[in-house]
Amino acid sequence: MARVTDLASLFPPFGLHVRAGSLELRPLTDDLLVGLGALAERGIHEPDEMPFYFPWSTAPRGELARNTAQYHWRVRSSFGPEAWDLQLGVLVDGELVGCQGLTTHDFLVTRTGETGSWLGQEFQGRGIGTRMRRAICALAFDHLGFAEVTSGAFLDNPASLAVSRKVGYRADGVRRLKRREGELALNQQLVLTPDTFVRDDQPVEVTGAEALRAFIGLDG
């Protein structure tokens, strides 16, 4: 058994670090959760919009920051080979700007998972969404053995759909979903494979993937 020397020894996702130029994906340790809650409360989308499957971002001020922290604590506690949700803070030039996730069930059999993300409203429209999606997909394909990565976006969310097109996702059907109370919304399903993945010229550097692979049951 590995010797326990730090938090990453107890929870290997805490040792993961992904860098692509000035953009970083870092584990959401408690110190980053404080900043993430504050970022969410400054706004993610306009009040009449809803980009998420579940309208978590409409919680009142104060409650939203607390809910955000509690969600990430629950994610950590349930992380294991059968099902895991890798949630990473997104930083640009050292500043926290959003969150990038990669969620999967029965990964050792399916080798598939879904990306999900959000950016603080003040950081949108700068190309960060495309960069962070490319970074998480490079991690998935190059270091974690994914055969495909899926995503989804409501048809009234053109910014997210544009990111998916730039990264190389292809359409994979439309789902009819309840979004807010009494509201039907159409959700475009998307799928990306290594051969359709559109990379840019920025290399993606990853550390800590070996311990994560062992933690989720890869490499024996």
UniProtKB/TrEMBL annotation:
Gene3D superfamilies xrefs: 3.40.630.30
Keyword Protein biosynthesis: no
Entry keyword set: Ribonucleoprotein, Ribosomal protein, Transferase
TM stretches of this protein: none
A GO CC annotation given for this chain: ribosome
Record keyword Endoplasmic reticulum present: no
Molecular function terms from GO: protein N-terminal-serine acetyltransferase activity; protein-N-terminal-alanine acetyltransferase activity
Domain annotation N-acetyltransferase: ranges: 23-191
UniProt name for this protein: Acetyltransferases, including N-acetylases of ribosomal proteins
Organism for this UniProt entry: uncultured Nocardioides sp
